Amino acid sequence: MKNQYVGDVGDFGKYSMLRSFSEAGIRIGVNWYLTEDDGSNDGKYISYLEDEKMRWRCPVVFDAMKGLANKKNKSVVGVQKSGILGDALFYAEMLNAEGTPAERESQRTKWFSDSMDALKAADLIFMDPDNGLMEKGDATKLGAEKYIFPDEVEKYYNAGHNVVYYCHKGRRSIGDWQDYKSVMFNRIPTSKPAILTFHKGTQRSFIFVIHEKDFKEYRRIIDGFTDKWHRLFSEEYTNKGNAAGEAMGAAFTFTTSHGANITIENRADGQLQIKNSRKPNLTVVMTPDMVYGLLGL
After folding, report:
1. Angle, helix 101-118 to helix 150-158, in steps of 10 degrees
2. Cα 70 from chain centroid?
3. Is 30 helix (H, G, I), strand (E, B) or coil?
4. Chain mean position to CA 1
5. Whose CB among 38, 43, 170, 197 lies 3.0–4.6 Å from 5's, allowing a Cys bridge?
6. What is the DSSP letter of 122?
7. Is 55 helix (H, G, I), strand (E, B) or coil?
8. Is the pTM of this model over 0.70?
9. Strand, helix or coil at 23?
10. Which strand ranges, in their side-by-side order, compose the sheet holding 124-127?
11. Domain chopping of the chain, boundaries
């Protein structure tokens, strides 16, 4: 993240997404992965602020962005003070790459350790690098400050946080993009995936790495958000598949008088799926309330 990006259309999308979690009672922690401005035109796409149809998506964030986007010395401090993310915690220490490779590595280690202390009370930590995930994280490399590292995602996750991080497809092929999206889920096989992509301006994707115990609640928030942001945000899947449809908990199976085995399972997204051994290619998905109504209870 750079201060020059504040108020850009991408900011509007990501803060609106994060606000949906904050409004649901999830405490957000933001590690900006803040780097120096570079004098480019990045961050100057603010024409969306003249579109009242965009404001409808999230008026609170829209109005805050309108107040920050044209400021001469805009910075993430303005976002922090705006209150758009409720009681969120922030880590805004600049991530520099100075000195020898060994010195850069040492600085990065301390910088990240300090971020864990600053954000330890957060439920969901948002990692906001310039360029996404460096698959083979190496702090000794020049330019590494523009990336997050897999072990950093894993450290947040193992400390009990759910994590969401920014990345983009760039010039990757479809196959390479599919592999890239799945890096953390292959590394942390117990985690549950969710990926949201924002389509206004440059494509931006947000990869959620979620603990199983929280997945049902996070799915409910994500589904509500994408319903309102239809066509601007869409969901992508990973090599791990659509975790929303994964069975969770014990399944209940019974055999009919015709010899068919009927299995009822509770899905990760809170719905029920019903399978019939006689029709292996057909799965019926219903909400618990629909089943309740059919039973006349």
Report:
1. 30
2. 27
3. strand
4. 15
5. 43
6. -
7. helix
8. yes
9. helix
10. 89-91, 28-31, 124-127, 162-167, 204-210, 192-198, 233-236
11. 3-243, 246-294
Angle, helices 9-23 vs 59-68, to 10°: value is 140
Which residue reads 């897999």 in tokens?
150
The residue with tokens 């969401």 is: 164
Conformational region of residue 261, where left means phi above 0, alpha means psi within -120 to 50, and beta covers everything else:
beta
Domain 3-243 grouped into CATH 2.40.50: no
Q: Over its length of 297 residues, how does the chain's per-residue pLDDT go in tens digits?
A: 888 889 999 999 999 999 999 999 999 999 999 998 876 655 577 899 999 899 999 999 999 999 998 888 889 999 999 999 999 999 999 998 889 999 999 999 999 999 999 999 999 999 999 999 999 989 999 899 999 999 999 999 999 999 999 998 888 898 899 899 999 999 999 999 999 999 988 889 999 999 999 998 999 999 999 999 988 999 888 777 666 666 666 677 889 988 889 888 877 666 777 888 887 756 676 777 777 677 665
Strands annotated E in the chain: 28-31, 89-91, 124-127, 162-167, 192-198, 204-210, 233-236, 247-255, 261-267, 272-276, 279-286
